[in-house]
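Handout, section 4.2: multi-component inputs.
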Amino acid sequence: MQDQNLIEMKGVQKWYGGYQALRDVDLTVRKGEKIVLCGPSGSGKSTLIRCINRLEAIQQGSIVVNGHRLDDSIKAIDVVRQDVGMVFQSFNLFPHMTVLQNCMLAPIRARRIGKAEAEATARKYLERVRIGDQAEKYPAQLSGGQQQRVAIARALCMQPKVMLFDEPTSALDPEMVKEVLDTMIGLANDGMTMICVTHEMGFARQVADRVIFMAEGHIIEEGAPDAFFRNPQHARTRQFLGEILAHH
Amino acid sequence: MTPHFGLPEFGFLLQGLQWTVLLTLVAFVGGCTAGLIVALLRTSGHKTVEWMVRIYIGIFQGTPLLLQLFVVYYGLALVGLKLSAFVAVAIGFTVNASAFLGEIWRGAIQAVPRGQSEAAMALGLHYSSRMRDIVLPQAIRISLPATIGYLVQLIKGTSLAAIVGFIELARAGQIVSNQTYQPLLVFGVVGAMYFILCWPLSWWGSRMEARLALANQR
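Output:
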């Protein structure tokens, strides 16, 4: 099915105590779609993607991932997390394991795959992010860009249906941003469904099917990158784009 | 005629030393096992459980160890559970150690960056794997200097066991000293024995601490 919906969020509300982080969010992501989420800090964009794999609980509304309704049951959370890979701003590699072990752990523990197969898969994805020769090293021995590529490979080893990226280049030195973005572009070209929280507007122009702008927990506007950048509808969007594009 | 401090007396001290080491080992291994459970419950995220464990820790950290040993030895005897001195102090020290080690490890578990658990959850790893594979290996490293420090305190603290009639190193020293009237010599030897046990551990502990500090700088 070409038009299969991988993610459906409806009427999602999320509070941290008295502070409302997500307000009535509706979002549908089709299989193969690439979405870029942007917005000022505190707008709820990270919170939104963290709700998709239940790193954050929602208080109202519904989230369906690959046909599975996400509720509070461990089983539902499990099923959804098997389908959703995530890459974090601060990499979050496991420092006491080698690159290879980082990539093998989850398939062995969560997918119950044999060691040899897990290693073959890990090496395949490490090659794919062009870091196969560093497999025996520890994360601390790698540069930030290399670490983030390992984190991408680690997520891919679980063979997710959709990848979430939470500001994957924000913690990187400028010269390393490109290698990570190139990896993400490669992934996009291979047809992976992706939701990326990022301020890399060049990346958004190049790979996004839709760009979504958030502020104060709302989705303010969304559109194809061309229209979104050339002709933003809302004043809030124009102001935001003015601020970030001024630096580019 | 009062005996002089000789080989038999030294042998008696060595016996006391053996009991000190044995009591320390039992209390430490038992305390580690129970302390791990305490630390896991204390960080479980269940409010009621966490509160109950806090009270448990509060009781054993907030009352004298001496009192706890009394309660185990005499208190349990009152309700009909007559324990040998060794078993009683072993239980007392184990329970006490579980509270202290539990707190040390609770702190270490919480010192592991949150992102580590989040990454593990995002990868679909369950609580047991998250703890065993990700959090605890890092927490143990963080807690090692404090854990070794506690072990040193424990070795010296076992001398309290003498209060219920258990003859460990310090008590053995007292007995020999009373027999020989050579307190300086006897307690000198006793002190040297404690030192030989504790000093290498302390040294190892501070080395671990230095290595950890170095690793954190990177």
